[in-house]
Write a structure and sequence with these properties.
The protein contains 15 helices and 29 strands. By secondary structure, the protein is α/β, with parallel strands linked by helices. It has two domains: 24-252 and 487-512, Rossmann fold (3-Layer(aba) Sandwich), CATH 3.40.50.300; 274-476, Rossmann fold, CATH 3.40.50. A hairpin with a 4-residue loop joins β8 (97-101) and β9. The longest helix is centred in the last third of the chain and has 19 residues, at 482-500. The protein is globular. The model is unreliable at 1-19 and 257-263 (pLDDT under 50).
Length: 525
Amino acid sequence: MARYHCRRPGGTVTAVTVSDVVGSLMVVGTSSDAGKSALVAGVCRWLRRRGVRVAPFKAQNMSNNSVVTTDGGEIGRAQAMQARACGLEPSVAFNPVLLKPATDHTAQVVLKGRAVGQVTARSYRDRAEVLREIVVGELGALRAAFDVVICEGAGSAAEINLRPTDVANMALATAAELPAVLVGDIDRGGLLAHLLGTVAALDPEDQARIGGFVVNKFRGDPTILAPGLSQLRTLTGRSTLGVVPWTPGVWIDAEDSLSTSSGDGIGPAAAPRGSMWLRVAVVRFPRISNSTDVDAVACEPGVLARYVSTPSGLVDADVVILPGTKATVADLDWMRRSGVAAAVVEHAGTGRPVFGICGGYQMMGKRIVDPTGVEAAGGSVVDGLGLLDLEIEFERDKHLATPVGVALGHPVRGYEIHHGRVVRSSDPQLITDVAEGSDAGCVAGTHWHGLLENDGFRRELLARWAEQSGRTGFVADSGTSFAAERERQLDLLGDLVEAHLDTAALENLICRGTPAMPVVRTRLE
């Protein structure tokens, strides 16, 4: 077992084994989707495998992909995934502030697991000081309870226009005296300039927290990159702690819909067990939420799942899935204006399956009533797609739950996050004794997120979809375990950290903090 010097509580420096590690680390990025969430998960899994009691933390997350925790709150899915990497159940302590975008200008604020109102970008700034005190306190409690806390920043670390009201990036690192590593996605191009420019844009106090760089998604010969990294060290005084290679087949719970914008494919497609593929089209709403619900379907052999946003995308689909959305009424209007709604109704009219989840399920009914203006100021009554004999009414308070039940003869569990409630339905229930799901044969839906992650139910549903769409040569695999696949993904992230990062330098940062670093000056100075 490795031994190195580490600062224990009280400031004493002693030689310790890795299982005695105490400290923290923040992972910040050059941009959104730079690889922060994956790197945090990989470091957490690597530390856990070495016997360290580790927990994740993201002070402020902006995401419509969320999950209900065992302690009854709501956090970003990325932090739930990172908790699994640590061997922990998701907790509101891991993500005390969650912003859920509702429009281009407003977002719902979820504080310590509970929705507390809507804000604009400008009005949110007025809350920054209070929120900063809250997140520093929550982080302190985690640091007292665990050996190591691995923190994730938000967006870019160099959003200097937001620095005075920053809650999640360098303001937290500086306030909590966290060492930080800066990660960037080289596959996008221009990374060396992004790393240098990010550090240079920071105030000296914030620069002092940055202890090194991580290059993400590198393709090709690392020796060609080496001269650039050497020059980067000369310019900044900071080393690159690792170059993580592009690794096909890596997928994790997405933090937000950004991950759906780079391509239409969902998950790794495995060869079919039978003679046919089952083609699943997932409608990509402008305000799509919990898009990770469809990952379990995409992991099945013989399933080709893709996002679609035009009527033409549904032409050759066997199955259409309407996923969750943070803005049911607005996204239903988008469906109608784009022609996608008519294409979905036509698809269902041919007897081919349509499946709705949460907001997508609400759209499939006869009518949506919003008496208190949860989504529309002054309230509204909107006609649904009419695919189910269902009426939805929005309630001001958000419903959060982690229910269990039986569906298609299989035990199931899931989680609920919604304002809309079923107030009338004549369709058979999808889940036994649960009114939050409808089963009208080819057309079905549920308010439950995570329902498709239940292996037995998912296989039964896939077999039914194949029969309904005439794909008799499709054979549902009997051995796919979505939970096991998630664990394999987390182990793979841990393997990448162990194989491609300077783990000794990483351990030293965690234990001893950022060493003295030079200030990087801009040419304007």
